[in-house]
Every structure is written in structure tokens, then in C-alpha cells.
Design brief:
The protein is built from three helices and six strands. By secondary structure, the protein is mainly alpha-helical. Among the domains are: 84 residues; 91 residues. The strands form three sheets. Strands 1-2 form a two-stranded antiparallel ribbon. A two-stranded antiparallel sheet has the order 3-4.
Length: 264
Amino acid sequence: MNKGFITIPILVIALLGITVVGGGGYAVYKVNQIQQESDSRVSELELKIEQIAPVEPVVEVATESVATTTATSSVEDVVIEEKPVAVTPAVVRTPAVVAPTPAPAVVAPPVVQAPVDVCTNIAGLQSVVPDGYKLSSGSCVELVDRCPALAGIQEEIPAGMLLTREYGCISERELDKIEAAEREVSREAKKCDDLKTLVYEADQEVIDIQEKYRKQIESLQGQGNSKSTAQSQTNNINRQMYAEIAPIEAERNKIANQYNFECL
């Protein structure tokens, strides 16, 4: 009986040991499976880091499942605890970026503009319109100065001015002044001409009177009068002549003096 009694507990202990050993094997299998999954996730993370480099290194903390078993009176009471396991961060080496060497600057040769003749109707090359010309329909036309007395070239008569033959371009006011002065000069000239005419007429009248009395004196000589009588008659005729000529000569001398004072 005692042997049988001892045998039964030993059998129970043996069965329990087998159960514990079997549970322990399962726990070790589970730990290995978790470790493989963790390694697989770390590999995937490293691959993603290489694809998106350069980035800051990522520290991934994986958990390693550590299975611990607690032996109880029942085989099913197995507790698995997971503890964080530090994973060494992967070092990502980013290649240095070297700036490309800039290509040498290409300098375009200067563009030489061919000279342009703006006056094709004038001999020689005219790069600009010459003085005294204007550009009209591709040809250079000589300017016509309508008012040479004014500064610059006046192609048209300026506003408020008149073109006269004597004075060129002149304002109406200036023309009025000139015409008034000319009228005054004309009046003075006419006055002088009239005075000169009066002097001439007076001289001619005196000559006519002298001729008239000369004929009278000549007629006395044919009458056969004595010399004294003829001389007396001649003296009377001369007195009559001088009496007639005196006022005419006085007026003539007056006119002549006026002419000399105003016209010379």
C-alpha cells in the first residue's frame, strides 16, 4: 500500500512536469514568432527610411515578447508578458549634394547696325535729315522760308502777320505804322514838290515878264526917236518891268527858302 501510495504522487508529479515542459516549449515558440515579426517590421522601417532619405533617423522601439510561465495547479494558466526592447536606431547616411558647375556665360557678339540713308533723293549717305530740309514721303525736301526776316524757318506765315513784298512778314499793327509813316513821307514829298513847282513857276513868270518888256524896248528903236527920248522910254519900261517882277520874285524867294528849310 505504501508503495502504491508513493507511486501515485510520483506519477502526478511526472505528469505535471511533462505539462510544464510542454507549456514551456509553447512559450518559447511564441517568443520566437514575436521576435521574427519584430525583426520583419524593423527591416520594413529601414527600407522605408532609405526610400525617403534624407530624413532624421527614426528610432523605432519594438517590443519583444517575453513569455513567462507560472506554474499553477492547472496547465492552462500560462501568462505571457510583453516587455519593451530597445532597438538600435538605423544610421542613415545621406550622400553629400554637390552643386553642378555652372556653364560659362555665352556673350553674344555686338550687333552692328547698318547705316540707314534717310534722304535717298540726296547724293551721299544721310543718316539724319540735313539742316534746311524736312522728311516728306521718304524724301528730303528743302524748306522754303516764307519769312526770311524772322528767326528760324517759317514754312507758313505766322498767325497775325501779313506777307508783303516790301517788308516780308509783318504784323498788321507794324504795317499800319509803316504805311502811316509812308503817307507822311509822301505828304512831305508832295509838299516839297509843290514848293519846287512854285519856285519854278515864279522863275518862269519872271522870264515871261522880262521877255515882254524886252520886246517893248526893241520896238522903241524903230520909231526914230532921239537917243535921250529912247533912253527915257526904256527906263520907264524897265521900271514897269521891275515893278511887276518885284512881288513875284519876293514870293518866289519866300517859297525857295521854305523849300530849302523843309526839303533839303
